[in-house]
């Protein structure tokens, strides 16, 4: 049973604040272990990666070449995947590609009123590492969501790593890699894979940025190599916030809440509504659907421990709560979702109306499903083409425009006690 | 004396690689100290900030209210600043504003061929913390470079922190804050200031993102609070790479190399040229200019320990070296800089031609001087308006378009073992 809050309760504010502040992740302290693994891979390269892979993934490889996934293995994996699934992967890939192609930023060169030439030029990152988890959270859709924006950006090399615990590799993940066009794949994971990507080894050339989700070891390793390479966000457990008016089918909303909850016992599903009847009907529908959900145990634990139903006097009253929660996923299952959207400031992705279940965005909507969790939509965005390009500033003065800008630069250089800065301008102006 | 390399040396590649791999920063291990400070400020708030400020900044304040910079103090600071400097700050602000206004990303709403509505909507981060170092590296230009893009983005609240070691606050920094329009300023610094901004205290409301440079304690604290808030890059020592042909005044180039070197004994200045005569002449000019440079001791140490002069057979041969160095600042002091620019892939900012000394970009060019250091231009960009906005994805299906997308989503949900995902789509389609 999820918690129930109502905005007319006297203690609503402290209870809502507690909901916001609630920690859902157990933060394992793996940082020192990770540090040692990173140092070791940096020092010994291939051999260290082989050692850790044998130990942590319970396999017995004797050389790094056995950790490279061969083309015939990829082809064999494709053979194991039903045609319908392959078609769905290709459909998803094409829709993701079409949406992300619109995100490519444009170069800008211009001459300002003084005559100074300025500009911003975008170029793709040359090499990117893509981490794909092994085991249960090994999702082919995530391969597409990470790889396609990189390819749209123009990244030439994508090195994918995916662990094979006990030697098992999910064929769907290899199929998704094939559909995306990834050809460089290693069956390695954990901090040792992050180290290999960041520092390079004898057999694996280093990349410039690492993206993709992972467990506590992967997250700690990404945090540590940040600076040597770029990283994407450190993703937390998934979450959804559904804002609903009375005119909803409670079963539809219950299905949406449970679709999030089934990810993880620490996932979070929250319903905000202005109708107490709907609130109770959704709670009942959740209980009913849990009985037949394949991952009912996981979803039930998430709903019980972290689910919440919040009653508000009006939908407008929901908006400040939405913006404080800053949800990863926000469904606006209301009559006029556009009106409500105008007041939404902090959300990773918004799903408008009654016919846009969040799962559409997970797979085939076209927008990215790698989104900011744990309130980080207050300051960050979902994965996009922008994560795979970088901008170079361009500045060009002539003798004349330097004469126009120079005196102010000299004044500021001198004010800051940086005489060399001032001199580098003055010397060109005979000042 | 800087090191000399020549691309025709047999051992050029290992020597160049060593130059790239060279660590310039002493990485102080302050992480555990920082962790304790963060925890303490989180637990005790104002009182902890007061305690650490008294201890580390050698002051004696009794309450947090004394750490707030009052309007009359800001006005008094302005009174100490020469009119010429204030004019230069305003000139710089206006130019930075004009350039950054072009960076504001545009919203995108569209309907795809199937009829699905998609979109990307940009909104400003609500509250940003701006860290300004105290002491020698307390630069008013950095206040403008960090604050103006935030204001252009539409950030409503900027909370600036700047330590006052021994009670001393640089009036220029307060003047720059005033010129930028910043009104919320605290005289605090170090990890305690980062903690106060990230977690909030009784007197200081938390922000959503923290930007600005700082010492090892500040960098470690930013790394730790990353996730709770957003952070900008972790900046390393500054660097310049000058690519020059024979037709240069050696004194101009020497001045540019020293303008970078004077920042810090671990700053780095590198010259690449195809003309040995110019190389030797620049080396001589550096030695000559060092004698009269106010910060000659700092610049001399940087040039001696980290400077480099690299001789290449042709300017085209310089390009792969440029891209491997991925310099923060790149000057192309050549006859046809645009031709060379076309081959530049990794650089924070490029300064074209003989009349664009890098110092112009530090102050009044208009582009940002907060740029990626330590080869991180391979994967990241200078500070921009994009650092102060975030994107929300928008997706909207109708009953009809859900019918078009639904089957593929259901197939992928089932393939991933996420029956709840599949159900949330199927239930709306009566499947």
From TrEMBL, chains A, B:
The annotated pathway is: Amino-acid biosynthesis; L-histidine biosynthesis; L-histidine from 5-phospho-alpha-D-ribose 1-diphosphate: step 9/9
Sites binding NAD(+) sit at 131, 192, 215
Q: Which GO terms describe its molecular function?
A: histidinol dehydrogenase activity; NAD binding; zinc ion binding
Its catalytic activity?
Answer: L-histidinol + 2 NAD(+) + H2O = L-histidine + 2 NADH + 3 H(+)
What UniProt keywords apply to this chain's record, in alphabetical order? Answer: Amino-acid biosynthesis, Histidine biosynthesis, Metal-binding, NAD, Oxidoreductase, Zinc
Q: Which InterPro entries match?
A: Ald_DH/histidinol_DH (IPR016161), Histidinol_DH_CS (IPR001692), Histidinol_DH_monofunct (IPR022695), Hstdl_DH (IPR012131)
Q: Determine if Amino-acid biosynthesis is one of this entry's keywords.
A: yes
**Note on how the cofactor is bound:** Binds 1 zinc ion per subunit.
Q: Where on this chain does Zn(2+) bind?
A: 260, 263, 362, 421
GO cellular component entries: cytosol
The protein's matches in CDD domains, at most eight in alphabetical order, are given as: Histidinol_dh (cd06572)
Q: Which GO terms describe its biological process?
A: L-histidine biosynthetic process
Lineage: superkingdom = Bacteria
**Which cofactors go with this protein?**
Zn(2+)
Q: What does the record give as the active site?
A: 328 (proton acceptor), 329 (proton acceptor)
Q: What is its EC number?
A: 1.1.1.23
Gene3D superfamilies the UniProt entry points to:
1.20.5.1300, Nitrogenase molybdenum iron protein domain
Residues recorded as binding substrate, renumbered to this chain, are 238, 260, 263, 329, 362, 416, 421
Function recorded in the entry = Catalyzes the sequential NAD-dependent oxidations of L-histidinol to L-histidinaldehyde and then to L-histidine.
Which protein family is it in?
Answer: Belongs to the histidinol dehydrogenase family.
Task: Identify this protein by name.
Answer: Histidinol dehydrogenase
Q: Which organism is it from?
A: Polymorphum gilvum (strain LMG 25793 / CGMCC 1.9160 / SL003B-26A1)
What is the gene called?
Answer: hisD
